[in-house]
Amino acid sequence: MVGNVRLAELLSGATLASLFGAAALAVVVAVASGALRILLELPASRRFRVVRDHEGLLIRRLGSLLRAAAIVVWFLVTLRAFHATQSFREAAGSCSGPA
Predict the structure, then answer these.
(1) Which pLDDT does position 91 carry in this prediction?
(2) Cα–Cα dist 84/46, whole Å
(3) DSSP type of residue 98
(4) Could you tell me where the DSSP H helices lie in 1-48?
(5) CA distances (Å), 77 to each of 14, 22, 72, 94, in order?
(6) Hey, what long-range contacts does 55-60 have (CB within 8 A, 24 or more apart)?
(7) Closest CA to 82 of 25, 20, 9, 26
(8) pLDDT at residue 52 above 70?
C-alpha cells in the first residue's frame, strides 16, 4: 500500500508541476511577445529597413521561436518533475547510435 501512495503522490505532484510550469511559460511567452512588439515600434528600431519592411514576418517568426523554446523548457520541467531525466537521456543516447 505504501508504494501505491508514493506513486500517487509522485504522479499528482508532477502533474501539478507540469501544469503550473506550462501556465508560467505561457505568461512568459505572452509578455515577451508584447515586449517584442513594443521594441519593434520604437523609432530606433524603425530606422532599420528590415524592421520597416518585414515587421509582421519578424513578429511571427520570433513568436514561433519563443513558443518552440517554451515547449522545450516545459518538456524538460515535466521530465524533471516525473524524475525521468536520466531515463530520457539513456533512451535518447541509444537512439542516436553508438558513441
Answers:
(1) 85
(2) 46
(3) -
(4) 2-41, 43-46
(5) 9, 9, 9, 22
(6) 59/33
(7) 9
(8) yes
* C-alpha angle 69-80-66 in degrees, rounded to nearest 5: 10
Decide: helix, strand or coil at residue 47.
coil
CB contact burial 60-74 (16+ within 10 A = b; e otherwise): eeeeeebeeebeeeb
CB 63 within 8 A of CB 69: no
- Taking the C-alpha atoms of residue 59 and residue 29, their distance in angstroms, rounded to an integer, is 13
List Cα–Cα distances, 16 to 8, 32, 37, 38, 71, in angstroms: 12, 24, 32, 33, 17
Average pLDDT over residues 73-82: 94
| Sign of the torsion angle spanned by Cα atoms 85, 90, 94, 97 | positive
Of 86, 66, 64, which Cα lies nearest the Cα of 76?
Answer: 86
pLDDT at 3: 72
